[in-house]
Amino acid sequence: MDELRGRAVEMYVALKPGVSSSGAIEDKVAAAIDREIGKIARPKHVWIVADMPKTRFRKIMRRVIAGISNFADVGDVSTLANPEIVEDIRHRIQAEKLARGEVPRQLTPEEAEEIKAFGRAE
Questions:
Q1: Which pTM was predicted?
Q2: What is the pLDDT of residues 23-42, one digit of tens each?
């Protein structure tokens, strides 16, 4: 899950090749979270994407996903194993958010720094 303090949680799900996306899958994911964790953990959005932005070691780059979710700069993606997926995800997710009336807002310096550090080893 992708979360910044005080914000709604969004979940990104990449399906296995050959499995087609549908609203039913999004609903099943949200229902499973309700059942297994509780309604308090239910994500605001479940986004079905073709793939996740990953390093060459297959680690999901959470800072990239957080940047996309918050209409922020995702930083350097040239070292990703699949950098082309970033623009695909950004275009689709941000277009859907705008269509739903979610307007980009200026992030505070703290929020921007938190996105840059998101997923970094502590």
A1: 0.78
A2: 888 899 989 999 999 888 88
Going from the C-alpha of 106 to that of each of 18, 58, 92, 93, the distances in angstroms are 38, 31, 20, 18
- Nearest CA-CA partner of 89 in 46, 45, 47: 47
| β-bridge mates for residue 13, sequence order | 48
Cα three-residue angle 10-110-89, rounded to 5 degrees: 35
How far from the centroid of its chain's Cα atoms is residue 98's Cα? 15
CA–CA dist 44, 105 (Å, integer)? 18
How would you class 70 by CB atoms within 10 Å of its CB: exposed for 0-12, middle for 13-18, buried for 19 or more?
buried
